[in-house]
């Protein structure tokens, strides 16, 4: 088809470039998050993630004690090297580096270029050379310690420190387990219930079947918001309250319409001969369902399982309403939205890492089981619609 | 009991319970209530078969009824009562809502979302589907555009918070502005009115992949003859796309459009994570959550307004499903 008529090489190029641009636009934000999660937190706020492989200029300060001064011909002087300060050993393990600019005040830490001479407000002059050696000079003796500010080039640093912080100190490990605890029962239980119902709607004749199918299609679009208040009140009245049991039940209920709809659409398309001949051979509906229909419906079961898994894993609304808000039962989405964004609002490294921890499992599921996901989407939308 | 252990027990009890229910109820029906033997064997088998579909469907009907059908009525009734739920105030909650500027903003924004997000996601999805269709690396490209579907709305919001950050050293948008010579960074999620579009783009980013996957399958389903005929008649690629391909997949486009429309009315996560509804960005789902736990009467009233907006789509869906079944 490609070369029938009117296909020009230029057009092919344009298409390639357009798609590449689209893919880049779609991918870049996620890549940024991924890169940021491995960067040092000081470097994150100093340069953009797109400059991650390049050295970063960070500002440091160091204090020089007045006791180090020595008398000279014209007064007093203190000399030394700014990189000798042990508090910066993390950045300059070899004890050397390159100073680009320096300053005498915290308000303007990069006022002067390396190698030039600066006036101190308290009297005297300061020079920092680009190798880090500094010289403080004054006519009178230095009474108090002097704080030097300098900007130095630091090598790009990639670290897993953010992951360690998030997984140990910030309680994401607990939230991860909670998410898992919510997700698995909420995925498995609706499948079973839905499969039986879907079989009945697909292969059993009874009055009111069409009406029930219409009802399922209708319930497919009922906004979740409607269910929140009445069901939470109901849970409170019957003693479930805000608990894991409550959220499993809620997810089961909310997932069922799609499950029944997808599975019925699939089961209805199974070959009639197989089921009829099993009936003639004396199999009961229960046997037909368990031994024939269920195994044949595996692709549809898998699609729904992936949907429900992604939906429950990624859900924020249901978790906020049906789970207690205390830290020990927070799932990851709630943890990030309510806890980390508030308390760690400016700590981009921690936020990026937490986000990546929460999306890692869905991404893994997505890339390994994409085939089933696509098939499920198609069954739900193209056929049924 | 630690929740993980509780979860395992629940899986076992839930799955075991389901299997036990179906097995035991079938056994009871076939062996005890209407045994397939004795003098009434024919009548018994017929009666058992009449009852069995309902046995199969009972758990589903029960859960659906309790968790989705009952709330429609429960919410409506609750919305007619005051905050504490003690006094019947008729449409009082709705009156208060409509008198509130915040609610009107939320409704306005929500219609903006309903207008922009489904249209943009469907259009971009269609574009991506068409462009990647016959590309050698089309499947990889599709996979990448489809990927945000797996990411939670919270995760996606965080990803875009980075892009939108009010800092040229973190946010890509401000970095580009900086490169073009802008003097100061802007906080795009605080620009009145336009900030809504920056929030919408997050959902468009997520949903384009969905639209693309479905429309791409629809494009592949177009009979080759129609395309060949159009090419032989001298149609260019643009004409071919708009006059031959698009009309043939119109049904699927409408399905994608309505599916995303419904989704827009459910998503509160993005607004909640990005702005918390500040800077005039509330939409109905997030506005509803701001009353949740504080004023059940108002919360259910907002939820019911959402239901009223969804209603036409629901009716259309049901009509469509019934037509397909015939």
Describe what this molecule looks like in 3D.
The complex is a heterodimer of chains A (385) and B (326). Helices cover 57% and strands 12% of the residues of chain A. Chain A is α+β, with helices and mostly antiparallel strands. Chain A folds into three domains: 9-51; 56-154, no CATH class; 162-384, MetI-like fold (Orthogonal Bundle), CATH 1.10.3720.10. Chain A has a five-stranded antiparallel sheet, with no helix packed on it. Chain A has a four-stranded antiparallel sheet with strand order 1-9-4-5. Residues 1-6 of chain A have low confidence and may be disordered. Chain B is mainly alpha-helical and 326 residues long. Chain B has two domains: 3-79, no CATH class; 94-325, MetI-like fold. Chain B has 14 helices and no strands. In chain B, helix 4 (101-132) runs parallel beside helix 8 (195-220), helix 6 (153-164) packs across helix 8 and helix 13 crosses helix 14 (296-325). The model of chain B has no long low-confidence stretch (mean pLDDT 88). Chains A and B meet through helix 1, helix 2, helix 4, helix 5 and helix 6 of A and helix 1, helix 2, helix 4, helix 5 and helix 6 of B.
What are the SSEs and their pairings?
The complex is a heterodimer of chains A (385) and B (326).
Chain A lengths: L8 H29 L3 H6 L9 E9 L5 E2 L4 E6 L16 E6 L8 E2 L3 E3 L5 E4 L4 E6 L7 E9 L6 H9 L2 H32 L5 H11 L4 H14 L6 H25 L3 H9 L4 H12 L1 H17 L2 H6 L9 H12 L4 H37 L1
Helix pairs in contact in A: 1-13, 3-13, 4-7, 4-10, 5-7, 7-10, 7-13, 8-9, 10-13, 12-13
Chain B lengths: L2 H31 L7 H39 L12 H8 L1 H32 L5 H9 L6 H12 L7 H8 L15 H26 L3 H9 L4 H12 L1 H15 L4 H6 L9 H8 L4 H30 L1
Helix pairs in contact in B: 1-2, 2-14, 4-5, 4-8, 4-11, 5-8, 6-8, 8-11, 9-10, 13-14
């Amino acid at each position: 088809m490609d070369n029938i008529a009117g296909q020009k090489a230029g057009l092919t190029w344009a298409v390639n470039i357009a798609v590449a641009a689209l893919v880049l636009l779609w991918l870049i934000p996620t890549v940024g998050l991924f890169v940021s999660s491995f960067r040092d937190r000081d470097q994150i706020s100093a340069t953009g993630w797109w400059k991650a492989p390049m050295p970063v200029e960070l500002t440091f300060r160091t204090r020089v004690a007045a006791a180090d001064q020595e008398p000279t011909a014209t007064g007093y002087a203190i000399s030394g090297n700014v990189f000798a300060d042990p508090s910066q050993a993390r950045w300059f393990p070899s004890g050397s580096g390159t100073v680009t600019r320096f300053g005498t005040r915290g308000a303007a830490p990069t006022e002067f270029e390396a190698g030039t001479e600066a006036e101190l407000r308290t009297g005297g002059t300061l020079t920092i050379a680009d190798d880090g050696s500094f010289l403080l000079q004054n006519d009178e003796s230095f009474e108090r310690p002097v704080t030097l500010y300098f900007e130095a080039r630091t090598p790009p640093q990639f670290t897993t420190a953010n992951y360690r912080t998030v997984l140990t100190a910030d309680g994401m490990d607990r939230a991860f387990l909670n998410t898992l605890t919510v997700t698995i029962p909420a995925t498995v239980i609706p499948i079973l219930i839905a499969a039986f119902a879907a079989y009945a709607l697909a292969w059993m004749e009874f009055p009111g079947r069409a009406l029930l199918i219409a009802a399922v299609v209708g319930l497919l679009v009922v906004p979740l918001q409607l269910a929140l208040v009445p069901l939470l009140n109901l849970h409170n009245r019957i003693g479930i309250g805000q608990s894991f049991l409550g959220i499993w039940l809620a997810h089961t209920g909310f997932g069922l319409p799609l499950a029944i709809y997808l599975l019925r659409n699939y089961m209805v398309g199974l070959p009639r001969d197989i089921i009829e001949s099993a009936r003639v051979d004396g199999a009961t509906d229960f046997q037909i369902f368990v031994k024939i229909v269920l195994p044949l419906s595996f692709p549809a079961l898998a699609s729904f399982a992936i949907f429900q898994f992604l939906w429950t894993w990624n859900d924020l609304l249901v978790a906020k309403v049906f789970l207690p808000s205390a830290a020990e039962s927070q799932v990851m989405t709630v943890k990030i939205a309510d806890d980390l964004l508030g308390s760690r609002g400016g700590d981009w490294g921690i936020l990026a890492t937490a986000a990546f921890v929460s999306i890692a499992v869905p991404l893994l599921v997505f890339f390994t089981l994409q085939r089933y996901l696509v098939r499920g989407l198609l069954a739900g939308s193209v056929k049924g619609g | 009991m630690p929740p993980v252990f509780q979860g395992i027990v629940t899986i076992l009890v839930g799955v075991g319970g389901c299997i036990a229910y179906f097995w035991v109820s079938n056994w009871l029906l076939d062996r005890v209530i209407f045994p397939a033997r004795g003098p009434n064997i024919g009548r018994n088998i017929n009666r058992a078969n009449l009852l069995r579909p309902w046995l199969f469907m009972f758990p589903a009907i029960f859960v659906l009824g309790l968790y989705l059908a009952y709330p429609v009525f429960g919410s409506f009734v609750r919305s007619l009562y005051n905050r504490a739920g003690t006094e019947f105030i008729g449409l009082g909650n709705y009156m208060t809502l409509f008198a509130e500027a915040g609610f009107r903003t939320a409704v306005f924004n929500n219609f903006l979302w309903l207008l922009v997000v489904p249209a943009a996601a469907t259009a971009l999805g269609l574009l991506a589907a068409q462009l990647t269709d016959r590309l050698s690396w089309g499947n990889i490209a599709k996979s990448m555009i489809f990927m945000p579907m797996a990411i939670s709305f919270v995760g996606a919001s965080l990803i875009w918070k980075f892009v939108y950050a009010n800092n040229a050293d973190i946010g890509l948008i401000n970095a580009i502005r900086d490169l073009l010579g802008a003097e100061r960074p802007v906080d795009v999620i605080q620009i009145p009115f336009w900030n809504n579009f920056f929030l919408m783009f997050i959902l468009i980013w997520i949903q384009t992949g969905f639209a693309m996957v479905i429309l791409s399958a629809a494009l592949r389903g177009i009979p080759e003859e129609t395309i060949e005929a159009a090419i032989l008649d001298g149609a260019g690629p643009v004409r071919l796309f708009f006059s031959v391909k698009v009309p043939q997949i119109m049904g699927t486009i409408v399905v994608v459009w309505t599916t995303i429309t419904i989704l827009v009315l459910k998503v509160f996560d993005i607004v909640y994570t990005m702005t918390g509804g500040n800077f005039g960005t509330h939409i109905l789902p997030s506005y509803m959550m701001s009353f949740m736990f504080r004023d059940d009467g108002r919360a259910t009233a907002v939820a019911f307004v959402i239901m009223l907006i969804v209603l036409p789509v629901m009716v259309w869906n049901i009509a469509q499903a019934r037509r397909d079944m015939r």
